[in-house]
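Protein modeling request. Please complete all fields; requests missing the sequence field cannot be processed.
Requester role: graduate student
Desired output: 3D structure, token encoding
Chains: 1
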Amino acid sequence: MQLTVWTYEGPPHVGAMRIAAAMKNVHYVLHAPQGDTYADLLFTMIERRDTRPPVTYTTFQARDLGGDTAELFKNAARDAYERFKPEALIVGSSCTAELIQDDPGGLAQALDLPIPVIPLELPAYQRKENWGAAETFYRIARALTRPRDEATRVAGRRPSCNILGPTTLGFRHRDDLTEVTALLSAMGIEINVVAPLGASPSDMSRLADADFNVVLYPEVASITASWLQRTYGQKQTREMPIGVAGTRAFIKEVAELAGIEVPKELENRARLPWYSRSVDSTYLTGKRVFIFGDASHAIAAARVASREIGMKVVGLGTYSREFAREIREAAALYGVEPLITDDYLDVEVAIAAAAPELVLGTQMERHVAKRLGVPCAVISAPVHVQDFPARYSPQMGFEGANVLFDTFVHPLMMGLEEHLIGMFRGDFEFRDGIAPSHLGGTAPAKELPAPVLVTDGGAQVAWTIDAEKELRKIPFFVRGKARRNTEKYAIEKGTTRIDVEMLYEAKAHYGR
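Delivered output (512 residues):
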């Protein structure tokens, strides 16, 4: 076991809570000690919900361990049904309660309640939050979905689909759902059920009535969508509608699944292509970007950054081990080594080694980037309260592409801004010691350590302070290339130190 001050995912019962809190008329009875009620704060404080999750805890204490904790659970389940009158009850154990092996599923079934009781077996010491959410959604779907009623299917009706995956505590799920629903409606496709967000048990029973499934978030919905495909023959989408290219590919895929033509009048509201070709945005071309997050958002962000904005991906990784294969395949496209880890310290080391000019990551990468003095934008859960904006701010669809462009650009200083700063740096009113505004705060920026490049033989190449100052005199738009060429030249010469003389020697060598 490794002690840590940060984790990208909570235990699997938190994932189950995300499903329960997303649905209507579902209640979760969680066998858990008194301290495990902390998870409520994730919803009321981080997501700023005005209600607590529909969860009843047994909240047993140390003195109860010598008695009948099974009876405590049965009483809690019985009381939860009487008080909340849900359409379905899900039951399970937290990571701590798992150790006492009380079997909540069997205990709840013995109560013979007049509603479906869905037991969850979530191995807390082998799995984590996203898996817990996916497994819970799958178990609910299996328990509640009824076979398709062919008698109700009318000839000539519009094609229909389910939208699967949005949950509570999801990164921009609320706004993504609005954007994707509008796209599907514009294509003439009916929405049969949206689940788990906003779905009731009676809604879940109708999942099989749809023609196909739109999988918005594979981390949550892929298991359920695969089961629906095996059981009821419903095909599922594979494209993520993130970015302009991703949205267009999604629309094309949906049209093929629905057996329709893509409507000519479907409006492309994305301004990203125009912005990325504009004069000032050409400054983004070649910017080195490091990307880390859940697999779906990380892969999509890499595609947008590389193919739609023109940045260079120098790092790509995920904490979602279940999607390691997809990350490895994506990393191969950009010629980078995939990073599969849930240790934030490993991510920090990788970011420092890649020396990116922009980091796209989670809440944790934002903290890492601040320490390293590198701009950062959050593109994936886990997130902080500020990443649940009151405004409409989707990641998906054409409007999501506009939001992504702003998200990637706002942490950076654009070309004209940096040019003016460089032009007036010598002015007596210019305060060179103030931290750049896009990195936050007004405290003096810390002097960054001299960049280090490790050779195959283990030798290190470092810059002198004078050489760093001289490098800053080179125009910003070629400064990165000058740095890399100089370091490469120094390695070829077998030196471990770059001074002013070496800088100009390298300049003369590559200027021939």
